[in-house]
User: Fold Glycoside hydrolase family 1 protein from Culicoidibacter larvae.
Amino acid sequence: MSKTYQFANNFWWGAASSATQSEGAAFEDGKGLNIFDYWYQIEPDKFHNQVPATDASTFYKNYKSDIQLMKDINLNSFRTSISWARLIPGGRGEVNPKAVDFYNNVIDELIAQGIEPFFNLYHFDMPIEMQDIGGWENLEVVEAYVTYAKTCFELFGDRVKYWFTHNEPIVPVEAGYMYQFHYPNIVDFKRAIQVAYYSQLASSMAVAAYRELQLDGKIGIILNLTPSYPRDESNTTDVKAAHICDLFFNRSFLDPSVKGEFPEELMTILKEHDHLPVYTEEELAVIKNNTVDILGVNYYQPRRVKAREAAIAADEAFAPEWFFDNYEMPGRRMNPYRGWEIYPRGIYDIAKNVQENYGNIEWYISENGMGVEHEERFIGEDGIVQDDYRIEFIQEHLEWLHQAIEEGANCKGYHLWTFIDNWSWANAYKNRYGFYRLDLATQKRTIKKSGLWMKEVAKLNRFDG
Ligand code: BG6
Assistant:
């Protein structure tokens, strides 16, 4: 029997992207280089098919017609970011007037079309000059970031009412300092912890700066909350492994952002292994006193873990992997076109966790989506990608989200990753996610079947499942 899933009239139906992933014009109008622009210059082979951020989908030039495309499918919110290196080339010093014009134009156009801007300040794209002096390991960079954040609030805070300090701050920690996925490709867990701590401090200081300006809006952080499930619920060592994984990869930012404190258990583990970051009591007070108003949640897939099996070798440096192994659960449902697990119920579990343990803070899905390699194979005779798999993916996640909302979860919106297929860090255009297909050669945008589906859902605030 079919059921109607009705959402609130003021629910945000949106899509998400980021500056570096959509703007293009990486070397134009005074923009400085960020770590990805730089990394491409020295190691182009690290990027899928050697495609650089310069080839992102030209939002810098086509923002007006792209915003019209959002309007065409009835989206009422758009989550993107400001490029630090575009607004303040080099990371500190003079503001780039052309960037101010650009972001003003984008904001004004969104508002004119009835689309709420959700703006994030930092999506992995550190200005290279800031990385050169140590990136998030250096307090000077934290201070430069806070000045940049304040500049954004002063320039755009009269119109942007939803602000986020970071997107997935754990990713630069893991990708840049633990697993060598992103520049600066370092493997050093002690340094990774300092990066995490100063990223959190930067976030809390930006929240403080926002509050001082007394603007009429809300500020939060976007976290990729990844439920970690144990192999066996009845096995205490597996359950402990999942718990520690959660401490390291979710609660390391969730707790200080929402509750103002790092989990005591995590600090104890770090202390025991001589891995506490350099910190001061004054900094901890800043974190304590500047918790967020709102939360963005990115959810793609869960993490499944089991108790670690191999003994720790004498020369094995301390790392989270001392406590658990990843677990490939037999029979788990996989996205056959991207290799990630599909587990829609995870969104419900996150919602319950936020409701029960984090004061039911207001939150939004700031990213959720299904990446597909070689999506051209699904283009139908009418030229439209027949992405029924994506409709099913979105719908199932929304069904679980709906259930959580019915049970009191304070989720106010859903943003698909992404609007138009966009460039993604080292993966470039390998995985397509958009409501609109991007033809790389011509830059032509063509709506997909999922875009047509969302057009109806956003219009009616409901769908039948
Ligand atoms: C998210 C990031 O974690 O994953 C996005 O916030 C990224 O920036 C998205 O594009 C998808 O990643 P990928 O590698 O599948 O393109």
